[in-house]
Amino acid sequence: MAKTHVTMKVNGAEVEGLVEPRTLLVHFIRENLLLTGTHIGCETTHCGACTVDLDGMSVKSCTLFAVQAQGSEITTIEGVANADGSLSALQEGFRMMHGLQCGFCTPGMILRAQRLLQENPRPSEEEIRMGISGNICRCTGYQNIVKAIQYAADKINGVEFKEAAE
Amino acid sequence: MIPGPFSYHRPVTVADAVKLLSTLGDEARPLAGGHSLVPMMKLRLATPEHLVDLHGIAGLKGIRRDGNKVVIGAMTTQHDLLASDEIAKSLPILHETALLIADPQVRYMGTIGGNVANGDPGNDMPALMLTLGASYRLEGPGGAREVAATEFYQGAYFTALEPGEILTAISIPAPANGHGYAYEKLKRKIGDYATAAAAVMLTMSGGKVASCAIGLTNLHETPLLAVDAAKAVIGTSLDPATLKKAAAAAEAIMSPAADARGPIEYRKHVGGIMVTRALTRAASRAG
């Protein structure tokens, strides 16, 4: 099958590659660009581990072809830290609130949460839970992931984070 | 999981897309959001030789008011529907239903056109389109035609679409001010298809139901309009005996498949409950 030339901007850098039309975006990201922070979980559009940000949308990169992302702007977990290399508010939140155990779902969780907070800077707990409903975590029971996102929202909004009583 | 090989086409006009689909024949499939098709391709349950991506066509996306109709472009995503003030104002049932489809990531990609055109009995929008009296604009090699949603669904994955035709827009008559609406969906988990779901649109007058339409999702190989159930509630105040009668009339036309969502008897039973709940909630919202 003839290969197609694709170009896109990933984490601020222009990248290009030759791909078969059937190459999934997640494979292009991991195998051509060697950005292996984006994980392949279920491969069936359920788990959200492969979530990246594409032109302002959270998408499951296992369910898009790389050719569909021609000309787009993509952010992966490798591109979320602050410019000086320090942790972003969400990364810090996941660290401080123990929002991960095995860490497999974390890149997808953080990318999804980042878009959620951009669309809704002050989400309720319910809105956070619905907002990450396309991301599955098998370790944490979500409790600390929700706290991590609340921590990040408060930090971004300049509010002191207070853990809700349990 | 890697799909089979295919050639990728990205036309920029509807005419070019139609030309591609009609010349490439049965081995070509249109690609909208791709969130039904791509998973099928990864499982090799679908192996099209050509994909005709509709994302390059300007004008297939967007929501506009045309007189007393709301016209929605086929490539409008579920996320676009949720963000639309026009939808929130004139068709809140569409907002309620879109929110029950899949999950946030899928809703950024999944389109209303793909949802209604695929003919998947599990999709939520088709029954809603029957309930709303919607019609679909189909464009093909022979020109454009308008087909009522009630005439569109022929069987599971079988629709009125002819070879080379694509669904380009959906027209929905704007419901009356003060109408009541509800979409009740029973599902096992977020992102699942309905075990059973019911859509209700109604108007009330003096505490009695003046008009009513009821649609059913995933309770037959096609979406259903529960005509007798809707007739049974007209002129009533939705008292318990009437609700029971309506649920029984709806159950009488259901023929769901037995699958992981439950045996036939269970799915019909909860289908009746969805009808009852949707009627009650719709009435409580009617002004």
Defining key terms:
heterodimer; A: 166 residues; alpha+beta; 15% strand; B: 287 residues; Uridine Diphospho-n-acetylenolpyruvylglucosamine Reductase, domain 2; Uridine Diphospho-n-acetylenolpyruvylglucosamine Reductase, domain 3; Enolase-like, domain 1; 3 domains; five-stranded antiparallel beta sheet; four-stranded antiparallel beta sheet; 14 strands; 36% helix; globular
Sequence of strands across the biggest β-sheet of chain B: 4-5-10-6-7
What is the CATH architecture term of the largest domain in chain B? Answer: 2-Layer Sandwich
Helix content of chain B: 25-40%
Q: Helix and strand succession of chain A? A: EEHEEEHHHH
- Indicate the structural class of chain A: alpha+beta
Assembly type of the shown chains? heterodimer
Q: Based on DSSP secondary structure assignment, what is the total number of beta strands of chain A?
A: 5
CATH class division of the largest domain in chain B: Alpha Beta
Radius of gyration of chain B: 19 Å
- Unreliable spans of chain A are none
Query: What's the mean pLDDT score of chain B?
Result: 97
Q: Which strand-content bin applies to the residues of chain B?
A: 25-35%
Structural class of chain B: alpha+beta
Low-confidence runs of at least 5 consecutive residues of chain B: none
Percent helix of chain A: 25-40%
| Strand order within the widest beta sheet of chain A | 2-1-5-3-4
Give the tally of structural domains of chain B.
3
Which two chains share the most extensive interface? A-B, 30 and 29 residues
Outline of chain A = elongated
Describe the structure.
The complex is a heterodimer of chains A (166) and B (287). With 166 residues, chain A is an alpha+beta fold. Helices cover 31% and strands 15% of the residues of chain A. Chain A has a five-stranded mixed sheet, with helices on both faces. In chain A, strand 3 (51-54) and strand 4 (57-60) form a beta hairpin. The longest helix of chain A has 15 residues, at 143-157. Chain A is elongated and about 60 Å long. The mean pLDDT of chain A is 96. With 287 residues, chain B is an alpha+beta fold. Chain B folds into three domains: 7-52, Uridine Diphospho-n-acetylenolpyruvylglucosamine Reductase, domain 2 (2-Layer Sandwich); 60-173, Uridine Diphospho-n-acetylenolpyruvylglucosamine Reductase, domain 3 (2-Layer Sandwich), CATH 3.30.465; 180-285, CO dehydrogenase flavoprotein, C-terminal domain (Enolase-like, domain 1, 2-Layer Sandwich), CATH 3.30.390.50. In chain B, 36% of the residues lie in helices and 26% in strands. In chain B, the strands form four sheets. Chain B has a five-stranded antiparallel sheet. Chain B has a four-stranded antiparallel sheet with strand order 11-12-13-14, with helices on both faces. In chain B, helix 11 (240-253) packs across helix 12. The radius of gyration of chain B is 19 Å and the shape is globular. The A-B interface holds A 1-2, 4, 20-22, 24, 27, 43-46, 48, 51, 57-60, 63-65, 67-68, 112, 116, 130-134 and B 1-8, 10, 31, 34-35, 38-39, 41-42, 51, 53, 55, 79, 102-106, 108-109, 190-191.
